[in-house]
Amino acid sequence: MNDTQAGTAIEGHGIAVVGAGSGIGRETALLLAAKGAVVGCVDADGDTAEAVASEITTNGGLALGLAADVRNLPDIEAALERVEKAAGQLHGVINSAGVTGQLGVRSHEFDLEDFDRSYEINLRGALIVSRAAINRMLPHEYGRIVHISSIAGKEGNPGMVGYSATKAGLIGMVKCQGKEYAEDGITINALAPAVIGTPFIESQPPEVVEYMTARIPMGRVGGVQEAAEMLSWMVSPACSFTTGFTFDLSGGRATY
What CATH topology corresponds to 14-194+226-245? Predict the structure, then answer.
């Protein structure tokens, strides 16, 4: 396949969703399977990965539940190899693995071990995912890699220095990699959501959600289905002339 064969069809494509156990990753895995993709449901929690894969296969889709931690390169390489073997080719990878880390703590009191964990998962882990995916995509001269960043990576959220810094670093990594592989048929982009209605957000106190929502011009929280629809396009052949870019999914909050 080359970039002139642009289209949104992903039937038969081998696509790994890293962080598929819950939230945006789970919803995206379900949508991709409904569109005919062979989905590798990858998560550090193997039970949740298997549960999502089982839900897909019960509904007639094709999926594998795979336990892998983004902090471990051999783990990720093995998971992507399984997806490649199941579909015949690894066409796409969506990396939604991430942690928020400490919340409501200013930088001078921020726990350094917590910062290190955020870095290991949000940024170093993203590099591991890219590295493993690119090595499998280069021989085919085709691939779609998408990392989920955050509006915090663009604007910086106070009290979230670990999350904001690592998500900003992720945007920088995507800009770099987009240029590096622009002539290899591999697009590498990011998505920067604002507040999305995931189980984590739903567990927060109403006043916290109200505060975050007030900063969104649309005046509402985004839906996981909206994120999944956008990601399914970004990982399709149709996303053929955009690379190294961070797409906005913020209800108008982001202006660049």
Answer: Rossmann fold (3.40.50)
pLDDT 10s digits, 85-105: 999 999 999 999 999 999 889
- Buried (b) or exposed (e) across 158-167, using 16+ Cβ within 10 A? eebbbbbbbb
Q: Which of 119, 142, 163, 181 is catalytic?
A: 163
Q: Which CA distances in Å does 104 have to 100, 101, 137?
A: 11, 10, 40
Length of the chain: 256
**Can you tell me the distance from the alpha carbon of 42 to that of 224, in angstroms, rounded to the nearest whole number?**
18
- Distance, CA of 190 to CA of 247 (rounded, Å): 6
Delimit the domains of the chain by residue range.
14-194+226-245
Q: What is the pLDDT of residue 4?
A: 40
Average pLDDT value for residue range 134-138: 98
The Cα 242–Cα 256 span in angstroms is: 16
Judge contact between 110 and 54, C-beta under 8 A. no
Catalytic annotation on 256?
Answer: no
| Nearest to 15, CA basis, from 145, 147, 190 | 145
User: For the whole model, what pTM was predicted?
Assistant: 0.94
DSSP secondary structure of 161-217: HHHHHHHHHHHHHHHHHHHHTTTTTEEEEEEEESSB--HHHHTS-HHHHHHHHHTST
The string of pLDDT tens digits covering residues 190-232 is 999 998 988 777 777 677 678 778 889 999 989 999 999 999 9
Q: 3-class DSSP state for residue 115?
A: helix
